[in-house]
Design goal:
This protein is of the alpha/beta class. It is built from 4 helices and 28 strands. The protein has an 11-stranded mixed sheet with strand order 1-4-7-10-13-16-19-22-25-27-28.
Length: 257
């Protein structure tokens, strides 16, 4: 199906578009942009150079994707912003392209990015995430699949957020947030297992009980390393428990307490 391009939109002749895209008035699509099929760009959407976007995404007014990184170490090197399929990118969302550090910013598929949230250079966002209004990610943040991050959350550069978490609105974190938990309060801290989220995602009662036991051990010892050893020595290491152990062991910024 042919693309529907408003006569009030600008599409650079070197941009590469798939089929069935709808490009509304006052949209701007730069050179070196590649998009797939059946994307909808409402009015006043800007797609900057380096964007690589899949199919069936809906981009709301004012969104600006693959923007120049807000990093003084960026000197115009060729980098990309890679966005998957079936994402809802709401009004005024900004996503920067990568720098020489990783060369690309990545957003997966089936995500809801709410109004005015920002993803900085070299971030990696997984699939099936919900990220709330005005939440801001600094450079090189990683978010694993199925995370729910509420509104106005501020995330320090290099932080890793685990899968299946729920983060309370208005939080700030400069440390990693392990998977499957609720993080909240001020200062941000571990607030229990994300029970409702895990049940909605189909986790069995046995798996949920095992995760609760693991986190009780990890956080009750006072020393995280001792808690990890207790889990290894007393529990069956299922894939979910292994994910927790690996995440915490590799947490370069430490984990929230």
């Amino acid at each position: 199906m042919a693309n529907q391009i408003s006569p009030l939109a600008y599409v650079h002749p070197n941009a590469k578009l798939g089929d069935g895209n709808i490009i509304g008035p006052f949209c701007y699509i730069d050179a070196d942009v590649v998009i797939g099929d059946n994307n909808i760009m409402q009015n006043a959407v800007t797609l900057h150079q380096g964007l690589r976007m899949g199919s069936n995404n809906e981009i709301m007014p004012g969104a600006s994707l693959s923007t120049k990184p807000q990093d003084l170490k960026f000197h115009g090197e060729i980098t990309t912003c890679e966005i998957g399929d079936n994402n809802s990118i709401r009004e005024n969302v900004t996503i920067s392209r990568g720098t020489f550090s990783k060369g690309k910013t990545v957003v997966g598929s089936n995500n809801l990015l709410m109004e005015s949230m920002h993803i900085a250079h070299d971030c990696v966002i997984g699939n099936n995430c919900i990220i709330g209004n005005s939440t801001k990610f600094a450079g090189e943040v990683t978010v694993d699949d199925c995370a729910i991050i509420s509104a106005s959350v501020l995330v320090h550069q290099f932080v890793h957020i685990g899968g299946y978490v729920m983060i309370q609105g208005g939080c700030r974190t400069s440390q990693d947030i392990p998977p499957y938990i609720i993080a909240g309060k001020e200062p941000i801290r571990f607030a229990g297992l994300n029970l409702i989220g895990l049940r909605r995602r189909g986790f069995s009662n046995e798996t949920i009980l095992a995760l609760r036991e693991a986190y009780n051990a990890i956080y009750s010892k006072g020393v995280i390393k001792e808690g990890l050893e207790a889990v290894r020595n007393t529990m069956e290491i299922t894939p979910e428990i292994q994910y927790v152990l690996d995440f915490i062991e590799k947490a370069e910024r430490g984990i929230i307490r």
